[in-house]
Amino acid sequence: MTTLTIAELASFCSSQGIPCEIDGDPSVRIGAVATLEDAREGQVSFLSNPKYLGHLAATQASAVLVRPDVQPPRPMNLIRTPDPYAAVTAAIVRLHGHRRPPQWGLSPKAHIAPTAKLGRNPNIAPNVHIDEDVQIGDNATFYPGVYIGRGCRVGDNALFFPNVVLYENCFLGDRVTIHAGSIIGEDGLGYAPVDGKWVKIPQIGNVVIGDDVEIGANCTVDRATLGSTQIGSGTKFSNLIAIGHGTRIGPDCMFVAQVGIAGSVQVGRHVTVAGQAGIVGHITIGDNATVGARAGVTNSVEPGVTVLGEPAVPINECKRQVAVVQRLPELKNAVKRMRRDLDRLMKQLEERNPEG
């Protein structure tokens, strides 16, 4: 197991552009990263969110990554940094590294079509199927059950977990990771109403995915009817994401679990879409916008705006709506009291002036 002094860890983080300073004994050794609650002696933890400050008193971690202004409730070894979350990410990489897949080499139990071309150092498991006219870059790792359809292009350092499926003619860049059960390039929902029936429209487009994209488990990306469904470089998907046909997603976006986006949506750069949000088709989500959890987006969103609610509106407007809804029982009772008072006044007026 790799162990470091906290001084060595601080130096490593600083070399990654995350400045750190030691507040405590720099010679203390740590060999793992853990949460504040679970950490034990010989482990390092972190405090990024101030609401967990109370956990510092009870943690058994040998050192904790904290912001420069944090005052611990008792003497302890601290590594102070402006960005504890980035620092703990660097610590995990340094102490634990990334997942190391099994090494199959090129399994004789994989089916590789004669016209397929594999790059250097393939790591292809049994029961992988690579179809005709496929091109795979260097250092590909495909787990069992991966299917690559004819005509696909996959860049260097691809990592596909079990049962990933690429339909025909999909193009993927370098360093793309796709987790188990995800499907890229299936037919989109394209049907024409003819005489009361739904007639299938052939989906003759494809999917194009940029570099450094990671797609979670059980996601689906529809191929375009015409042209390409696009996922921009650096974009990250959680699990259970559904992308409709012809949608174009910009670079460095983040989609949380159970997001659904209909067809022909234009999503800008660095857009965040939180869990269970739904976006209707043929609208635009501007650069740096944020869609809150469970939002139902029915209109285009301006760049930099955060929306929330069903239908989604700018977050401050949504907060006002929620505040009003929470007061509805009180407002209802107030209206009932006003109605009783009005009825009483009307009755008094009628008694004083019976002729109206």
Plain-language structure description:
- The strands form seven sheets. A ten-stranded parallel β-sheet has the order 8-11-14-17-20-25-28-31-34-37, with no helix packed on it. Strands 9-12-15-18-23-26-29-32-35 form a nine-stranded parallel β-sheet, with no helix packed on it. A six-stranded mixed β-sheet has the order 27-30-33-36-38-39.
- It has 356 residues and is of the alpha/beta class.
- It folds into three domains: 92 residues, MurE/MurF, N-terminal domain (Udp-n-acetylmuramoylalanyl-d-glutamate--2,6- Diaminopimelate Ligase, Chain: A, domain 1, 3-Layer(aba) Sandwich); 145 residues, Hexapeptide repeat proteins (UDP N-Acetylglucosamine Acyltransferase, domain 1, 3 Solenoid); 40 residues.
- The longest helix has 25 residues.
- The chain is built from four helices and 39 strands.
- The mean pLDDT is 94.
- The N and C termini lie far apart (95 Å).
